[in-house]
Amino acid sequence: MSTLDLTESEFAELDELLATTPAPLQALDASMLDGYLCGVLVQPRLIEIDEWLPNIFDYDGGVLPEEVDATWLARIRELAERRHGALNRAMVEDGWFDPVVLDLEEPAEGSAEAAPAVEEEAPSDPDEAAARATYDSMSLISRTLMPWVAGFQHAALCFPELSEMDDDAVMAALARLYRHLPAETPEEKEVVATLDREHPLKDLDDAIEELVVTVADLCDLTQTQRYHVETLRREGPKLGRNDPCHCGSGRKYKQCHGAN
């Protein structure tokens, strides 16, 4: 597999290809995919492409139809696999990578966007209204990073081994990432408030640096488990060359099953 990273035009192509995923599936966009791939890479086990690729086509676990365009699918696979390889190489060799983050801009004071002429209609669904209120209460930094982090969380939900690790350092790292997601429970709100108080973020560049360092930390924390190789153990003691053969022939092992 090539580890040559995608160009800007290839990132745009990948985003457009994912956007044409057959309805009703809701595929990840390029930023969410980037976070998802990092979430795959820091798992405590190696995950092959045939296992992680299907999850990028629907956030809720839907499956692609069998009659999907093979050329379309092959191109998405090629681009996604290249980005996966490039991210892996960057983490291992440099301890750093450049995440795909779309920079949102705060509307200028007094602009049409900042003061729309027509007030938006409030959502009729109470849950939707609550979600919108939670989103609006988030900082611009967190709203900017939210798609990337949502993609990372998608990987953590698809492959729960990372979240189930009994490791305080892993849990603390996940909290530093998830501070950029909407806090729904009192516990989540308290965690975000604590992080904002004890580890405030100056600006978007500062937040991106913390995000990258946190993912690199997770990569290091799970490396031992990810590359652990099980050693086969014998049920009984090893036979010596001059011991009776285990087959019961009465001959020495070296003259029976141990013969070359």
TrEMBL record:
Biased composition (Acidic residues): 118-128
Family matches, as Pfam families: SEC-C, UPF0149
Gene3D superfamilies for the chain: 3.10.450.50
Region (Disordered): 108-129
Name of protein: UPF0149 family protein
Protein's organism: Roseateles koreensis
Source organism phylogeny: Bacteria, Pseudomonadati, Pseudomonadota, Betaproteobacteria, Burkholderiales
